[in-house]
């Protein structure tokens, strides 16, 4: 058992029979009253972020998690199939554990977070940006450049991303996996 002085970003803890990771924390020592730790906790199953305040010195139940490198192979009715890059072990992961499954392409490297005691996958973290090829985009209309105008484009994984008017089919673009938005054109 650890206490509140051990809280740091990325720490995984169990609270109310749920696993949470600490995304933000702040030790507060007011002039009057006891010290406390204000945190933002992300639920590993639902992805929901909640604020929580711990009184100073309270015991917390820290859980061990491991991050392992995996490579995306394919998806079917059993889920998304990944292969460990060192042991070549294959595992299926349900789509709800993946941050942006519609942006996954074959051979994509990801990090899968496992609970150390039960060996169950908790989440699948994609890299912050992925490079995808545009397979279909409507042609931009000349004269529509007065404002920052976007048009829908289909990328090689089948996902639809809003892109600027100058993007044409066949070009590679960089997409932010956290917001699922266009970032830049790849040269």
The biggest beta sheet reads: 6 strands, antiparallel
- Overall pLDDT confidence: 89
- How many structural domains does the protein architecture include? 3
Could you say which structural class the secondary elements and strand pairing correspond to?
mainly beta
Shape: flat
Descriptive overview:
- This protein has 187 residues and is an all-beta fold.
- The protein has three domains: 2-62, Roll (SH3 type barrels), CATH 2.30.30; 65-125, Nucleic acid-binding proteins (OB fold (Dihydrolipoamide Acetyltransferase, E2P), Beta Barrel), CATH 2.40.50.140; 129-185, Beta Barrel (OB fold (Dihydrolipoamide Acetyltransferase, E2P)).
- It is 0% helix and 53% strand.
- It contains no helices and 16 strands.
- It has strands at residues 2-3, 12-15, 18-28, 36-43, 49-55, 59-62, 65-76, 79-84, 90-93, 109-115, 121-125, 129-137, 150-155, 160-164, 172-176, 181-185.
- It has a six-stranded antiparallel sheet, with no helix packed on it. It has a five-stranded antiparallel sheet with strand order 9-8-7-10-11, with no helix packed on it. The chain has a five-stranded antiparallel sheet with strand order 14-13-12-15-16, with no helix packed on it.
- The model has no long low-confidence stretch (mean pLDDT 89).
Write the layout of secondary structure elements.
Layout: E1 2-3, E2 12-15, E3 18-28, E4 36-43, E5 49-55, E6 59-62, E7 65-76, E8 79-84, E9 90-93, E10 109-115, E11 121-125, E12 129-137, E13 150-155, E14 160-164, E15 172-176, E16 181-185
Antiparallel strand pairs: 1-6, 2-3, 2-6, 3-4, 4-5, 7-8, 7-10, 8-9, 10-11, 12-13, 12-15, 13-14, 15-16
């Amino acid at each position: 058992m650890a206490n509140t002085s051990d809280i740091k970003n990325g720490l995984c803890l169990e609270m109310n029979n749920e696993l949470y990771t600490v995304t933000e924390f702040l030790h507060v020592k007011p002039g009057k009253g006891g010290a406390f730790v204000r945190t933002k906790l992300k639920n590993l199953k639902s992805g929901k972020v909640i604020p929580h305040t711990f009184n100073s010195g309270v015991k917390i139940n820290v859980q061990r998690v491991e991050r392992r490198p995996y490579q995306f192979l394919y998806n079917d009715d059993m889920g998304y199939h990944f292969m460990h890059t060192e042991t070549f072990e294959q595992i299926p992961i349900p789509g709800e554990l993946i941050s942006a499954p519609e942006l996954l392409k074959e051979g994509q490297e990801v990090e899968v977070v496992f609970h150390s005691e039960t060996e169950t996958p908790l989440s699948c973290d994609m890299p912050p940006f992925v490079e995808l090829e545009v397979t279909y985009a409507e042609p931009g209309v000349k004269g529509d450049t007065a404002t920052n105008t976007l048009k829908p484009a289909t990328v090689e994984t089948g996902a639809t991303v809003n892109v600027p008017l100058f993007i044409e089919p066949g070009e590679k673009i960089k997409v932010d996996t956290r917001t699922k938005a266009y970032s830049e054109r790849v040269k």
